[in-house]
Structures are given as structure tokens and as C-alpha cells.
Amino acid sequence: MTAKMSRRLVWWWPVLALAFFGLASIYGVGAEFRPSPLGVILATALLPVLFGTVFAAVYHSEVIAVRTGEPYGTLVLTVAVTVIEVALITSVMAAGHGSSTLARDSVFAVVMLVCNGLVGLCIVIGGLRYHEQSFRVSGAGSYLMVVMTLAILTLVLPDYTTSVTGPYYSTPQMIFVSLATIALYATFLYIQTVRHRDYFILELDDAGASHRASQSEKAVAASTVFLLLSLAVIVLLAKKFAAVLTAVLASTKAPSAVGGIVVALLVLLPEAMAAVTAARNNQLQKSINLALGSTLATIGLTIPAVAAVSIGSGQGIALGLDQKDTVLLVLTFAVSLLTFATGRTNILAGFVHLVLLATFMFLVFAP
């Protein structure tokens, strides 16, 4: 009964969230957040409402993903999550108040939370239950090759260019890097979905095929409609969330990186649940596709989107990491190369990744 009610709630949640948006717009949470008794109540309720809508979007994208099968399924999910992240980042950027580093902080937080936190957790859970798990080295290597290139181009190279002082790209450099990231991501999608699909599928899944057959066209069409509705509502709620987040960060004097972590956690949590479930079911290949695919989509789609917003609005965005974060990024990629080099994992690699995540989180508050 509870599961049935939960499924019904997922279907109706976007409609409830749309009603909440109207209520919040009328009673105290607008483009800027001005605390009042009712406004504080609505602001407190905003996060669970937004999370519920994100979860609904991910649920409906998974329904579509089951029908389309791998590797298209994880592609649908990662693109939906990236649309959500772009909406949140651009909304907070538009809110101003020193948010020029939000895109960098959010993308870096996604890389650390996924490549260390989610990957480490999936490997540990799978290792404790099955001792070792298998995956395709060719698929993981393809992900890492593109992720590492995009991350260095967008998060490290700006610190070493000379056209503009500081961790910034000039407008021509921003345009070039954006086009390069889109080209790399498009090429990867061609490899993933057309040229070398077998790189990202460990084995034929007969159960998955029968599950796909059980998904009616009517259910998939309904999920498509509700997915689009959920994404539209998230874009609307993102503006409310930006106002509240800006006010909270200013009042608490939290480090600027906290905003990026909050955005990353919000959009990654539902997808992380799917990846962890796959690892528990001895489907580490699917976990890797979800984890590394979300990182790749975040860099490949988010950076060009926020670059377009930056150029259009004239608001500069700081992309280059400081030396501490650059060291963590390079170490994360070095460990990832070792983790995914053999095609099999155990809990040691997982714990190493979790230690790197803990280091990242600690240094946010104690730099």
C-alpha cells in the first residue's frame, strides 16, 4: 500500500509543486527572499517540495529509460538531471550576490561527490555483498578520458591563461571552450549510442528486456509528459530556491563552496539512489554508467549553458580552481584510473575514494 501511494504521489507531485509555486509567489518568496513568519514557513517547505519534484522527474526519466534500454536509459536520466542543475545554477547566478563562482563550485562538487562519493559508495556496497564486481574497462576508460579532458579545460586551464587576470576566460576563450566541450560530448554520445554500444553493456540482460516489453507505450507517453512538466516546474521553483539559498548563505556567512555542494546534492541524490540500487543488485556497470555519465553531462552541458548566460548578461564567471582543489581533482583522476584499470573492483578502492570525498568536505570548512 505504501509503495502504491508513493507511486501515485510521484505522478501528482509536479501538479502539487506547481500549486506551491503559485502560493509562494503570492505570500512571500519572490525574486528576493524577505523573511516573514509565513515566508519562513514557505521557504522551509521549498526544499522538500523541490526535492520531491526532482525525484518525480528522475522517476519518469527512469520509466522512459527502462523502455529504451541501455545505454540510452542512463543517457535520458543524466540529461534530465543536467537540465535540473543548469536551471538551479543559472537561477542562483541571476540572483547575484557574489554568485560568480557558483558554476565552478557546483561542477567541482559534482565531480568530487560522484567520482569519489558515489563511485566509492557503490564499490563498497557491492564489494561487501559480492566481494568483487565486474565492469567493462573500455566503457569506464571512455568516460574517464572525456571527463578528465573536460574537467582540465574548464576547471584548471583558466588559471593559466593570460588574456584575463584571475580564474577567468576571456569571451573568445569561453566560446571556444564551450564549443569544444559540446563537440567532445556529442562525439562521446555517438560512441555510446551508435558506434560502440557494447563498451557500456556488461552482458545481455534478459530480465531487462522482458521489463522493457512490459512497459506499455501509454505509460511511456504519460511519463514523457510528466517528465516535461516536472522539469518546467523545477525551472520555476529554481528561482525561489535561488532567492532562499542566497539569503541563507549571506546570513550564515557560509563558505561560497557550500552553495555549489547544496546544488550538487539536490540534483544528484535521486540519481545516486538509482546507482546504489544497481550496485546492490550486482549491476556495477549500470552504476558506473550513471555515475560517470552524470559527471560527463554536467561538464559537457552545464559549462556551455552558464557560459551563454554569462556572455549574454555580462556577468563574469570564475571557473579556475585554487591550488588545493586542483590537487584534489588531479588525485581523484589518478585514483580513478587505477580503480577502473582492471575491470574488477573490491572495497579497498571504494574506501580510498570515500577518504578523498571526506578530505574535500573537510577542506571546504577548514581550508
Structural class, by secondary structure, is: mainly alpha
* Overall form: globular
Q: How many domain modules? A: 1
Rg, please? 20 Å
Would you give the CATH topology?
A middle domain of Talin 1
Strand order of the largest sheet: 1-2
Beta percentage is under 5%
Number of strands: 2
List keywords for this structure.
367 residues, 1% strand, 2 strands, two-stranded antiparallel sheet, 12 helices, A middle domain of Talin 1, mainly alpha
Descriptive notes:
With 367 residues, the protein is mostly helical. The protein is built from twelve helices and two strands; from the N terminus they run ααααβαααααααβα. The chain has a single domain (2-365), classed as A middle domain of Talin 1 (Up-down Bundle), CATH 1.20.1420.30. Strands 1-2 form a two-stranded antiparallel sheet. The protein is globular. It starts with a helix and ends with a helix.
